[in-house]
Amino acid sequence: MRIVLTRLSALGDIVHTWPLAAALVAGRETVELAWVVEERFLPLVASHPAVTRAVPVATRRWRRHPGAAATRREVVAARAALRKFSPDLALDPQGLVKSALWAALAGAPDRVGLERAYRRELLAGVCYTRTLAPPPEARHVVDINLSLLAAVGRPAPFGAVPDGRFLLATAAAHRRDSAAKVALLPATGGVGKAWPAESFAELARRAVSAGMAPVVVWGPGERVLAEGIAFAGGQGVALAPATSIPELAVLLSGCAAVVGGDTGPVHLAASLGVPTVAVFVATDPARNGPRGERVRVLAAAGAAAGRGSARAEGAGEVGVATVFEALMESAVATG
Fold first, then answer.
1. Cα 8 to Cα 6: distance, rounded to the nearest angstrom
2. What is the largest CA-CA distance in the chain?
3. pLDDT tens digit string along 18-74?
4. Domain boundaries, the chain
5. Does 167-334 carry CATH code 3.40.630.30?
6. Which has more pLDDT, 197 or 307?
7. 3 state SS of 324
8. Contacts (Cβ under 8 Å, ≥6 apart) of 72
9. pTM for the complete prediction?
10. Any idea which architecture 2-160 has in CATH?
11. CB crowding 120-156: b at 16 or more within 10 Å, else e
12. 257 sits in which H/E element
């Protein structure tokens, strides 16, 4: 059976879809899996052990130049790659028009998405031949994704944990520094989701006093924020270099602990088995929190308002002392 999976972005959402990919190929029937993904996130998919073929797309870049000859060529090439794969089934856990459209362009006769209450864009349903509703116990986004296994008649392994260690298989050997390196991930992808920058700076100062080596990690568009925290943190606080996704995985895997909010690299760190402290101030960790054996979640808000919503009801604060205590416990546990 050939299946195409359309989860185009972003980092954390792709991490949350890995268990579905793994479960799809774990049955007795031989399954070939193609995954459509934004070119920026290709490293998260191309080397995944469950993926037969990764098909990169560039929807953001294409929207900027929709009439360009290069855009037309790339769109036609991506569609041709999917048609050549000749899928029997398309699964769209992303629930956006752009992801559902690629399920249709793949030419799969059976195109399955989530019921309208569980997807972000209702118009995506136009591209599906049928939809599925997750059972009540599927509250976390990993389990919501896994509920799509019903499309192939398989039970879902709810509670599964994303495993990103495949990203380190070809990485250069690395080891932890003599001082406990702590990665701080201050940026988030949404307004109001971030723990305050001054709180990260104070946490960094406390970590230095405790003999740790904080390093502020940043991604595209985040350098100014990271530089400000590193400067405010003072001596002993480092600014990470620019990293690709594979380099980020190696950096995080070499840390004694990671602290961050609801952001993709936090989910990546948890999937690598790194002790992770996640600070959630506006989203519901029961739905969107990182999963892993060495994860601590500190939440400041109530449960999500709706089945398809990640936004929590109310908001609150998580104090620096609370986060520092969790960090110390996590770092000591690695020792």
1. 6
2. 61
3. 999 999 999 888 999 999 999 999 999 999 999 999 999 999 999 999 999 999 999
4. 2-160, 167-334
5. no
6. 197
7. helix
8. none
9. 0.94
10. 3-Layer(aba) Sandwich (3.40)
11. eeeebbebbeebbebeeebbbbbbbbbbbbebbebeb
12. strand 257-260
